[in-house]
Amino acid sequence: MSDETKVDLELDLKGLLCPLPMVKVSQNINNVPVGGIIRAVATDPGAMADIPAWAQSTGNEVVSADKQGSEFVFLVKRVK
Amino acid sequence: MEKVQLETLTGVIDKKMNRQLKQYIDICARCAICKDACHQYVGTGDFKYLPARRAELIRQIYKRYFDKAGRFMPALYEAREPDDNLLDELYDSTYACTGCRRCMYYCPFSIDTAWILSVAKAILIAAGRGNEMLGQLADAAIFKGDNAAMFEGVMLSGFDDISEEVRAITGDPEHRVHVNKEGADVLYVALAGAHSIRPAAVIFEEAGENWTISMFEAANYGFFYGDTEKARLITKRYIDEAKRLGVKEIVVPECGHAYRVAEFFYEAWSKEPMPFKVTHILEKVDDYIKSGRITVDKGLIEGKVTYHDPCQLGRNGGKFEQPRDIVKAVTDNFVDLTPNRAEQWCCGGGGGIVAMEEFKDVRLKSGAKKVEQLKASGASVLACPCENCRLQIEELNEVHELGMEIWQVIDLVVAAMPLPGNQKGAEATE
After folding, report:
1. Chain B residue at shortest CA distance from A42
2. Which is it for strands A71-77 and A61-68: parallel, antiparallel or unpaired?
């Protein structure tokens, strides 16, 4: 996804331990419109499995999941 | 309520209400001794959180369909249909309950309200009113189990990073997180976060344990959600891995409900005997310290230290002394909370409530007794071997400006080990 992707909601999940990053994304997914994007930044490596698993099992989409230094950056799209 | 849905709900009740539960419902004298035992009722004063009241809702539904008097004269015998009002009330009183079972401890008849509420959860799930967040967390865990290969790469990369951190602490270039190691004696079933793996890896490696982890975490939101099939599937992920790897022992992490699920529930859910020993990590660590397999230095932890018994590990799991012995091994400045052990107050964070935003207000109010205890202890450090408890107490610490440090017990142990990569430990070894 390009750098110009419109982000509807930024979530700072740094310092939160798993599964809280996944919980926070889930709690906030309805705060963006269908097709909207949440950009979430976590520091717990467990989020790299948790958030994609949550997205797959709830029918949402992880557009990208990148490790940037000690941070894990997710773009999560609300699908329904 | 439509006939089909009603039949489904009454079918659930009929299946779940065994002899013991029927007896609980029959013998409750409504003496309300439980009101003074429940941290939520004490903290909020709200009638719906009174334990006997929570169980009363199930009794009212049960009487409406399974009791002769309740069937024919429901108004006279306080029998109610599970209409929207009742189900709303049931949802609040059930999912807010942390399952601490302090009410049971003080009940003259030992009525297990948490068990009665497992029927309530089954009813709510059958009615399509199970807690959505807990259901999602459970489904995500099951998805990870069914699609393990999808996550293997990122997880292995994460384990490599943790291995580096372990080596930086112990100073031993051979130390690492062992993953899916066949022939290991111990499978450590960690939580998903690095914080649960790193200190355990340091301790296992220093103790010379033949250990491994797998891809699957111990947390079980299917258990909190109230769906025993989901809970079984989540647990089965690591039980199957333990069988495949041929381990002799499963070690569960600092997580209250994970210990109970593995030690007390899985055999009943799966209808098969557990082929290996289940041990809590603090039992292992206590043994390592007492047998001299790891060394801890009492001078390295500063301040007065206290200990919180997580309800699932303490009152409901029977593990009171090993954690205390560990804390006393790392400090001469230990003070217990009052009351403690089986009478310990619930912190208010159990049962998955920390993940349910709608209960935040009642959760924080229900921590009042814990705040009182912490203040009275005069301690500046709290050791607490449960993730949900720590999340709750960290929030109470912030809201009430207690100024305490909240630690995992194994973090406290690692901090007290004279290791080259541990700053205080390095000073001690000079």
Report:
1. B193
2. antiparallel
The structural domains of chain A, with segments of one domain joined by +, span: 9-77
**Structure pTM?**
0.96
Q: Which residues of A touch B192 (CB under 8 A)?
A: 18-19, 44, 46, 49-50
3 state SS of B7: helix
Q: Which residues of chain B have pLDDT under 50?
A: 425-430
| A44 touches B: beta carbon within 8 Å | yes
CATH topology of domain A9-77: Translation Initiation Factor IF3 (3.30.110)
**B252 strand-pairing partners:** B280
A10-49 confidence digits (pLDDT tens): 999 999 998 899 999 999 999 999 999 999 999 999 999 9
Catalytic residue among A8, A14, A16, A18: A18
Structure tokens of A19? 């599964």
> What is the reported pLDDT for B74?
96
> Is the CB of B158 less than 8 angstroms away from the CB of A54?
no
Rounded to whole angstroms, the Cα distance separating B262 from B250 reads 9
Using an 8 Å Cβ cutoff, are B216 and B241 in contact? yes
Q: What residue spans define the domains of chain B?
A: 3-130, 134-289, 295-429
